[in-house]
Every structure is written in C-alpha cells, then in structure tokens.
Amino acid sequence: MNRHLNFVTLICLITGFVSLVSCSNDDDEMNKYQKIYIRTGVAPGAEMSAVVVVDRVSNSSTADRSDFEIQLCAVQPVSREVTATLGIDTLKVNAYNSAKKTKCELLPGDNYDIEKKESTLKTGQTVAESSFRVVLKNIEKLSNPDGYVLPVMLKEVTGMDGQAVSTSMNTVYIRIYASILYTGYTKPADWAAVDRSAWDVSCSNAYANDDARYGAHLAIDGEANTSWFSWGVANAEECWWNTVLPRPVTLAGFSVTKQSAYGSSYNLKSAEIKVRKDGATEWVTYQRTLTFRSFKGNEPQYAVIEPPIGDVKEFRINCLSPDSYTGFAEINLFVKQ
Predict the structure, then answer these.
(1) Is-contact 50 105, C-beta < 8 A?
(2) Domains of the chain by start residue, with CATH
(3) What is the rounded distance in angstroms from the CA atom of residue 231 to the CA atom of residue 210?
(4) Which position has the higher pLDDT, 199 or 157?
(5) How confident is the model at residue 6 (pLDDT cuts 50, 70, 90)?
C-alpha cells in the first residue's frame, strides 16, 4: 500500500567514514594542514552526532519546498581564496544505515535540488559569506515509512591541496523521518527498563478527581487491573502523564499497556511525547506523533525513539486521542543495554 506519510526533516553533521564517528587523528593535523569543512550552524567542537530539527512538512502544508543552508568553513583563516563544490555521495547511504541501524532509502532526485553548489572562502575568512543551498521538494508525497537520507558532501575544493579537507566533517546527512510513528508489540532485544521505584509522577487530572482510583501513580504500580484514567483534551483542554526521574537517562523508547478502567473505545490511540533534559527549563517535543495499534489484551505496545534522546530528566506523554477520556494501566521507559 503506497501511503503518503507526514515527514520531518532533520540534519546531522557527522563523519563520512563507515563508522560515522570522528577520527581523532584527522584534526590532530590542524597545524600542518588548513582544515576545510561544512556545517549546518553547529559550533566547531560540538557533538557531531547531534540531530537538529530543521523543518516539519506535513500533508496539510501549503509549501511546495523546504530549503536550508550549509556553511563552508575553515578551522583557521585561509591564507588564500578557497572555492568548494557540493555534491551527493549515494554510496554513503549503506554506511549510514549500518551505523545507525536504520533502513533509510536514498532521497529520490525529484525531491531535492542543490540550488547553490559552489561557495568561496575569501582570504582571511573562516566562514564563507555565501552558503550552499539545498532545497527539498514535495516531501509530503514520500511514502517509505523507514524514511530517507541524503548524504551531501564536499566534492571539489580548489585553492588548497586535497589533504586540506577534513575527513571527519565533510558530509552532512539530511535525514527525513516519517512524522507518524506506529508502535509495535515486540520489545527490542537490547532494551533495559528504567527503574521506576523513585519516579515522581503527576498528571493533568484524574477522572472524577478521584486520585485514589485513577491517579498517575497507578500507571507504575505493576498492576494491569489499575489505571491512570483522565478526561481527554476535548473535556479538559489537556491530557498528560508526567514523571521526573531521579537521574538522567538516554531514552531509547517506552511502552504502554491499555487502560482497564472502562471500555476499549477509551484505549490510547495517539499521543506525543515531550522531555526536559537535565538542567534545562524548556520542553523538547519529539518530532513524531505516536499512533497506537489495537491492544492485544494486557500486552504492552512499544515505541522506539530514533535517534535516542540523551540526558532526559523529565518525561511527559500528551494523550491526543481519544479526546473524550483515556489513560493507560502501565508505562515503562527504556534505555539501551
């Protein structure tokens, strides 16, 4: 079935090696060679595997394109003019999938243009005045649920020898996720549950204001016959369940078991999650809307967070539908072993 899915565009500046991790020997040679590299606004020295949300394109969007800039940079001011050309390396798709354990397809040629392929560092500059420009088109018409990747890399550099180009920062991977994430019934083998004994839980409300029968604490009591149950967003404007963790974790996913308070029509159908990182005050919303399948008795459903979110200190699930009443009997968070 060729379904059109909503997609989220993300950019990740990481190495061009198969391992997709920085090679420390590469930039040890800074003093010997003038390193030329590309970035998407990530400061030099920042974690290169960090993913930054650039754009969200939904089926309801009226925009027919989404464009962004990639900067040409140098570690030190260049001693003479350097011109570089941007291109696509299709062979790096397999390397990306292997390293990230994904099944991305190469973004089709009809869905992107490199409108500005050339950029120049003038003498004395560390950042070029004009950037490369990559345009994504008709993303809402893509249909692969595993998403797409576009490896954009420096193809040619003139004005300096080839050894001047950084081998650890010469590629930008544009990752396009399906913005709808469907849950599954199987827990990944490398997951370990986060200890719930010291969680500080809360919720937007408990049905009938009866915390004893429907409160947030009932979602972590280990009992399938008790539930957090709540008025939905149509009745109470908000519907969320929240926990503050005793220590930060790298969140790989979570599971939910269906509510047992009332009929199956009130089982959770869709939700979004937010996290607050250790020491932060702002919430970060995960870019994919979660869609739950029909529950099989008291078997949990699992949602994989890709990529995992680091330093999570607070976790919140906003229940979107059903919007009248909903909840769940159990919720667990998971990290990779």
Answers:
(1) no
(2) 32-181 (2.60.40.1510), 191-336 (2.60.120.260)
(3) 12
(4) 199
(5) low
pLDDT at position 326 is 98
- The per-residue pLDDT for 69 is 83
**Partners of residue 321 on adjacent β-strands:** 270
Q: What is the pTM of this model?
A: 0.60
Question: What is the distance of C-alpha 221 from the center of its chain?
Answer: 30
Q: How many residues does the chain have?
A: 337
Give CA angle at 299 (325, 307), nearest 5°: 85
Classify burial at 187, counting beta carbons within 10 Å of its beta carbon; exposed 0-12, middle 13-18, buried 19 or more. Answer: middle
For the chain, give the mean pLDDT. 82
Q: How many CB atoms lie within 10 A of CB 58?
A: 15
Distance CA 310, CA 313 (A): 9
- Contact between 190 and 16 (Cβ < 8 Å): no
